[in-house]
Amino acid sequence: MTAEQIAENINKIRATLPENVELCAVSKFHPAEDVEAALKAGQVLFGENRVQEAVEKFGLINRDSKRARLHIIGSLQSNKVRKAVLVADCIQSVDRTELVELIEKECNRINKTIQIFFELHTGEDSKSGFSSEEEILALCSRFSAGEFPHVIPAGLMTMAPFTDDESRIRKSFSTLRLLREKINSLYPELPVKELSMGMSGDYKIAVEEGSTIVRIGTAIFGERQYN
Ligand SMILES: *Cc1c(COP(=O)(O)O)cnc(C)c1O
């Protein structure tokens, strides 16, 4: 993709999104110059799957001057948490209790506050995410008790199954929305508000189901080359 095409893709997608839905440009496997092209087009929120790649790529960019923000959206190994909290503004892919404890510990160490989303497993064929809502609710109770002062539970994330069956995709997104409603009624003091759902192939359905952040890679930057 040229810089012009990237800008055009971003503008086209933005034009289809309601005002309250934020576009997260997923730049994994694409070079820093593509991120620069997106920044020039006014894009500020980026998603990366792998911590090391994010550090290398976003280290090249003067993020502060451009108000760029970076979210980690891929499953995070425990030994990468230290680096992840340094580079990221939010970790969307929190999929186990231990990870919250580690994020709190590392943020406490460097005196930083970070946002997280709880990732819920809603599609039968995807593997990532908490498999039970109960675990997320138990964590909410601990947040409510003040156990994680450096971590802000700001939302929920999910990936829909890869399928042509629109009803299954829709079900996955509505499951996430219902969980947010449950959390908001049980723990109104927690700021759990964002619904990160929808990718290049299914974001229109996600928006209909109440998404507040869509994570789009291919439709902005083109196909990824995985080697
Ligand atoms: C790669 C990725 C995306 C973007 O997917 P596209 O289909 O390229 O838009 C979104 N979310 C997650 C978690 C991803 O890993």
UniProtKB/TrEMBL annotation:
Q: What keywords would UniProt list here?
A: Pyridoxal phosphate
Q: Which residues form the Alanine racemase N-terminal domain?
A: 4-224
Query: May I ask which residue range the UniProt record assigns to the signal sequence?
Result: none
User: Which cofactor is recorded for it?
Assistant: pyridoxal 5'-phosphate
Q: Name one GO molecular function term.
A: pyridoxal phosphate binding
Listed Gene3D superfamilies: Alanine racemase (3.20.20.10)
Modification N6-(pyridoxal phosphate)lysine occurs at: K28
Superkingdom of source: Bacteria
The yes or no answer to whether the keyword Transport is present is no
Q: Which InterPro entries match?
A: Ala_racemase_N, PLP-binding_barrel, PyrdxlP_homeostasis
Any idea what job this protein has? Answer: Pyridoxal 5'-phosphate (PLP)-binding protein, which is involved in PLP homeostasis.
Which NCBIfam families does this chain map to?
Answer: YggS family pyridoxal phosphate-dependent enzyme (TIGR00044)
Q: Spell out the family assignment given in the record's similarity comment.
A: Belongs to the pyridoxal phosphate-binding protein YggS/PROSC family.
Which PANTHER family does the annotation name? PROLINE SYNTHETASE CO-TRANSCRIBED BACTERIAL HOMOLOG PROTEIN, PYRIDOXAL PHOSPHATE HOMEOSTASIS PROTEIN
The molecule here is called Pyridoxal phosphate homeostasis protein
Q: Which organism is it from?
A: Treponema rectale
